[in-house]
Specification:
Helix content: 25-40%
Largest sheet: 8 strands, mixed
Order of helices and strands: EHEEHEEHEEHEEEEEHEEEEHEEEH
Keywords: Oxidoreductase
GO molecular function, one term: oxidoreductase activity
GO cellular component, one term: cytoplasm
CATH superfamily of the largest domain: FAD/NAD(P)-binding domain
Number of strands: 19
Protein name: FAD dependent oxidoreductase domain-containing protein
CATH class of the largest domain: Alpha Beta
Shape: elongated
InterPro entries: FAD-dep_OxRdtase (IPR006076), FAD/NAD-bd_sf (IPR036188)
Strand order of the largest sheet: 5-6-4-14-15-16-13-17
Number of domains: 2
Radius of gyration: 21 Å
Structural class: alpha/beta
């Protein structure tokens, strides 16, 4: 389709929505980004920010993850301020599968890479090409540059439904009134089923809570992203130590944070002085069958959905590929098994 003066509403200013908006604005679309709060205020704000290509070859998003690293490198060339840390990752969990691209390390090699690890495992898996990013800062940057290309950001505005005329979607109904557009992209995670219900009531997107903890750290503690049985940590750009934790229903956030801090102090040298600065719970959108949901959901091809987990790893590729589908009217083979139409069968 021609992008000349085409107006696209992107609902959701998380890492996925901001990437789509950036790529569309760059190609000359008139883009309006709408978020019920502020950019990166939902799941993205609590994302650990691990960019990884390590995936089981039978995983639903295996092909998508294989191109993710390359797309993040491309985006970093366009936006150097992204400042992605390409330090690699070390995993030493009970997970048994050796994933494509991972190199097995013995205890000596682990100790050399991570000298502060007090009890290095006898064996670990190293993914040299992995990186990490501050998902919130990346979202701000993508949104900012989308606006520099002409996009309009509307915050503190709730989108409740799609508007229709003569059976065709004409825009969205918002808390500020109706907003018209030629196309609507729903990148608002767990809110997608409610908004899309009037034209497609079969989009099962679940909510999966995850916790992000931020500790101050007076010195570097780890050199890579460490993912072990007891903790998952990396450094932020400002030197803070970030930890990703699973949500436990019968424990408070304070209890989970305290236990994580104790495990970190027992497992890593030079961490006795760390202290919790911030903790948050993010509710990640996860399609019920585990496969991303990407594509048009109406016969007129005016409403496009984009939701998947992990969003941070895939965001750069999703932004580019969705933009190419909307710009050129093509259908990428990589999305074949991701189409929303699978839920209509």
């Amino acid at each position: 389709m021609s992008n000349s003066k085409k107006h696209v509403i992107v609902v959701g200013a998380g890492i996925v929505g901001s990437s789509i908006a950036y790529h569309l604005s760059q190609k000359g679309f008139q883009v309006t980004i709408i978020d019920k709060n502020q950019p990166a205020s939902a799941a993205t704000g609590s994302a650990f920010g691990w960019i990884t290509a390590a995936v089981h070859p039978d995983a639903p998003d295996a092909l998508l993850r294989q191109i993710a690293i390359q797309d993040w490198h491309r985006l970093e060339q366009e936006l150097p301020a992204l400042a992605i840390h390409w330090d690699g990752s070390i995993k030493y969990t009970t997970e048994s599968d050796h994933l494509v691209g991972e190199v097995t390390l013995d205890q000596s090699a682990v100790r050399q890479l991570e000298p502060n690890l007090l009890c290095p495992p006898t064996s670990a898996r190293f993914m040299a090409i992995d990186g990490s990013i501050d998902a919130k800062e990346a979202t701000y940057l993508l949104t900012q540059h989308a606006c520099q290309y002409g996009a309009v950001l509307i915050t503190e505005t709730h989108v409740s439904a799609l508007t229709q005329e003569n059976g065709k979607v004409t825009g969205v109904e918002s808390s500020n009134g109706p907003i018209k557009a030629d196309y609507v992209v729903l990148a608002c995670g767990t809110e997608i089923p409610t908004i899309a219900d009037s034209i497609n009531p079969f989009l099962p997107v679940l909510s999966s809570p995850a916790i992000l903890l931020r500790f101050n750290s007076t010195e570097p503690v780890v050199n890579t992203l460490l993912s072990g049985d007891n903790f998952e940590v990396r450094h932020a750009r400002n030197g803070d130590l970030l930890a990703a934790e699973d949500y436990v229903a019968n424990k408070s956030l304070a209890e989970i944070a305290y236990e994580a801090e104790e495990l970190i102090k027992k497992g890593l040298d030079h961490t006795q002085s760390i202290s919790l600065q911030h903790s948050s719970i993010g509710y990640r959108p996860v399609p019920e069958d585990g496969y991303p949901i990407i594509g048009f959901i109406d016969q007129a091809q005016s409403v496009y959905v984009a939701v998947m987990h992990p969003a941070v790893t895939c965001a750069a590729s999703i932004g580019r590929l969705v933009c190419e589908e909307l710009t050129m009217g093509i259908e990428h083979d990589i999305f074949t098994t991701f189409r929303p139409s699978r839920f209509n069968a």
